[in-house]
Each structure stands twice: as C-alpha cells, then as structure tokens.
Design a protein that fits this description.
By secondary structure, the protein is an alpha/beta fold. The chain folds into 2 domains: 109 residues, Rossmann fold (3-Layer(aba) Sandwich), CATH 3.40.50.720; 174 residues, Dihydrodipicolinate Reductase, domain 2. 38% of the residues lie in helices and 22% in strands. It is built from 11 helices and 13 strands. α4 links the parallel β3 and β4. α5 runs antiparallel to α11 and α7 packs across α11. InterPro entries: Gfo/Idh/MocA-like_OxRdtase_N, Gfo/Idh/MocA_domain, GFO_IDH_MocA-like_dom, NAD(P)-bd_dom_sf.
Amino acid sequence: MGTGVIARHFAEDLARVPGCHLAGVSSRTMERAAQFAGLYGGVAYEGHDALLQDARVDAVYIATPNSSHFSMAWAAIESGKSVLVEKPLVVNVEQAERLIGFARERNVFLMEGVWCRFLPAIRFVQQALDRGSIGTVRSVTGELAFQHPYDATDRFFDPLQGGGALLDLGCYLVSLSLMLLGRPDTVSGAWCAAPTGVDRTARLDLDFGGVPATLRCAFDNTGGNLFVIEGTRGTLVLPSPFIGARQVLETGPAIGRTIRALGKSPFAARLFSKIARKLPLPGVRRHAFDFPGYGLQFEIEAATRAIQSGETAATLSPPDETLEVLKIIQTIRDLPCS
C-alpha cells in the first residue's frame, strides 16, 4: 500500500524471499499503481480499499506517509489481513495503544518495520552481547542525522504528515537501544524545533540500570552516524550509516574510546567508516555481513515466518516494544523546546 521509494525497495527485496510474491499494489491513482505494477508485478488497485477487499491478498505492507499509518493499518486489520507497517507504526502513543489493542482483539498479525533490527550485523551484535564478548556494557552512543533543506510542505517538516526527526530517525536509535539493553529506567533529553514546530534535532539520554545511552538525531546536518557499544573488555561499532550495517567492528576498550571520539566529527566518522570497509585496521576485527539488495528481505522473512506459524507478532519486533519506543519519543517531545 503506497508507491514511494521505500515501497519500491520493499518490492525489490520481496522478490528475494522464497515463498513470497507481490500480489498487488494500491495507490490513490490508478496511474501510479499501474506504473508500479508494471515494474514489480502484481495487480494494480485504484484506492487502498480495493486491495483490502481482495481475498487473494494475505498480508499488506503499509508504505504511505506517517500520518496515514493508523487509519490504513486499522482498515487492514479490520479486513483480516496480516499487517507490516513501515516505521513509525503510528505517530503517537494513543494511536499505538489503540491499534495494538485492536490487532490483539482481532487476533491479527501486526508488526512495525524497523528493518535494521533484522539485519545479520545487528543480530551478531545482540548475540555478542548475550555471550559477554565485550564484558559488561558500560555505555552506548548513537547518532543518525541527515541534511534535509527546510521545506514546510515536505514530509520531514510537515506536522500534518507526521514529520520530525524523532519519528523519522530517532525511532531507529531508540528501538535498537531497547532491543539490545531492555527498557530504560530514566529518559531525558532536549529538542529544537523547525519553523513548523516539529523536532528538527533531538538528543535522548537514556539510562539502563546505570548504563547510559546518548542518542542524537537531526535534519540540519549529515552526522557521523555510528552506533558504538562500549564494554569493560571491548567495543562493538556499527559503522556509518549503522541502520544499513553490513559489518561490525570489534576492538579493545582504548581503540573503542578513540572511535567514539571520532563520532563527534561527522567527517572523521564517515571517513573512518569508509576506510574500515576497505582496509584492515590494526587492533580492529571486522565481521562482514554483506547481502544483496537493500536489506528489507530480513524483516520480510521474519514476518513471513511468524504469519505462517499463526503468530500475531514477530519475536524481534514485538508490539509492546514498539509502544515503548513511542512513549520515549513522546517524553522528549513533551519537554519544552530548547
């Protein structure tokens, strides 16, 4: 449901998943739907209701503007379709609570598509932490920032379209932190507004039982975009841009602190990531996890397994954790703009 860039990436990666095929695509106009179907296959539907009424469709992927996620997912659940929604699931906590409750009431599969959770590199990091490979985790630092010229009508800045850096970028940082460390004990931070009132930049300070996580997202610059986990015996680094991680760097505490310091300079962090992809670095062990396409196939595989097993949620992206992410984002947004 939807024909934008992420929908095109999803369609390409869907073709890489055995047992899955694109049944159709819906758009507000037949022209857009037909053009998309001509490229990727399936039936073209004018209007999303037409797709939901087709009994041949088992599951839907919602790839429309953030502000429409709630109503479209609700309609899909009502029709009995399994539902995968591109992040963010919805734009606020109230919508999330209602939608998750409705899916449970109807016994229908619902999942937020935070695709980085399912990448092989991220799974490696989670398993390494579970094994204690870097000792006890001492801190987490993450940044996700991309320059977007201000345009009040653009989805990034338009509040009516669910804009803001926290919903677009910060959700990745928070979601990954919760996946690796659990639920935080405290949440604090700060944010700065764009002229439209949405958050243009934000900092989140989370504490996980004495383990601090410092997270930053922004639309006003392109950042270093590293994700660094420091432990008592070593450091794990997801190089820039970490949301599409194809490798994990493992190193000792001293080099880890140096890499974290590099993250304060966007140019230095990006240069380091580029070098690390191509050249061996002393004291740094590289774990490579290359894959074809955009990396969306891993979340598609997880959703498919869960649906075929009769489950109503995916283990790696449970609805309760999606709700917790939105609560943390809402906590920051409720603070006075700095």
